[in-house]
Predict the structure of diguanylate cyclase.
Amino acid sequence: MACSNIISAFRRIPWLGCLMLSLLSMGVVRAATPLEGAWRIARPGDTPQQLLQDFRSGTLARFDPAMLQQFPRENLGSWVVLAPQPPWIDEERVLAIYPPPAGVVTVYPSATGVGEPLSSRDFSAPTHGNGRLAWYVPTNQSASAPIVLKFEPTTTVAAPVRFDLQPWGEYLQQDAGWLVFASACFAVMLAMVLMALCFSLMLRDVTYAWYAGYILCYALIQGAQSGFLFHPMEWHWLSDVTPALEAMATAASVAFASLFMVRFCELQRYAPLLRVLIGGLAVCMATLVVMQGSRIGLLQQGMRLLLNPLLLLGATLLSIAAIIAAARGSRHAWFFLVGWVPLLALTAISSAQMNGALPGLGWINQAALGVGAFEAIVLSLGLADRALVLRRDRDTVRVLAERDMLTNAFNRRAWIERAEKALAGDPALSLAALFMDLDHFKQLNDHHGHSAGDHALTAVASALETELRPTDLLGRYGGEEFVVLLTGATVAQAMQVATRLCRRVHRLEIPVDDGEQRLTISIGIAMRIEGDTVASLVDRADQAMYKAKLGGRNRTFLHRVATPHASRPRLHVIDGKSA
């Protein structure tokens, strides 16, 4: 059921499919100029000229620049030589390194031999490679001249990269495409965050706040890893704190995801034991955030040691909990799984690439942006579905609390509450109360049993509701007694309605005993007067109903307030007999 709802939702959002197709197509463009690559670990005393000699002598390790390759960044770093292959075209070119590596990459043009540092956090660079590092090849450099790069040492993990040597026009086109794609993904994520925060405040439901925190942290992580925070956002103030901020955002995202999942998937109902474990995971991740933000070296080192094991544990635990909750009937656990599984798959592929596997999947980093937007949309649909379910359940509970289970009329408490609101309204509005009691109902129960009595009550309530307007209030006052509040009715109209109700019940022809006696109803009528309360109005209608009983049953009686010129109360006979 949940899966079909998700599929139908995607059909109503056709651009979501386009987003996923764009996600798969990003990063597939190959360099216009084929490259030959070689590399080795840097040694003391190395020079770019020596690297070129080693390259020509074939002593460097060869690799395919179009495939992802990991270069060690410990000690002195690594050297890389990229040699353009024929056909050589003398035109403006750009060397692009994707994804943008952490730290600094120094490029040595063959014409000058002077190194030019490249970094995603270099805001003075003339060429900004959005989502990658970009170096504009000097026009005086030969099209066939090799390019020497040095990956400078850094303490961060060395992620695999690939290289493209593109014509200037192709670079600008791909750069614009990446900007549109990345901006759309971040816009979707931030829009979902703002929506969730608004709903959290309006509905006073912390589940939406946990979701907003999770998606916001994920967007922050992707913004740092893709370089979007630096180019095009150019948030200079984040450049020095990015590693610590990324670690804190990673831990916080798992903490928010854990708290969100506990409530969203209803683990207290479907997996109570795992709920406790996931709650403990959220506490551990929050502790890691505090450790990283403490600026105490020992605590920060401990945070870095614990982060990856806890991430692996958390991903496994959340996945198992979602699967168990879904299998046990949690509707929203399916939404969580649909949004969560692609993210886990990308994380697994990224981990494999760090160990040298799957070098041809160069679009994984860009896919992480698309998957983040996809997950934000899926979980937002799940939250919307959750809100609808909660509203439906609330309405059901309200109906059960206000309606009589047998007749579906308002119960006594709910009828009195609505009648009080009517009396508290416009004092000039005419109101009439009808107090009704079934005649010979005890005799019906004695002869035919209580089941027949229940059927009779149901039939009478249905008949009464059919004769009344939607604005009239029908309630079961107790046992075989019913009450009606007529709004805007004059005395004559109230008498007409009461007479019509008597006739309608009489036409049901419900047998009371084995003879010809049929179930009827006696009705007392009271009009609102100044200073009336619900109790006083119903009490006068009840007195009028007893007068109708004393008058022979199956009739109506109007209660008139005693005045010097009050006329004699009228007793209306329904069955044709005289009063």
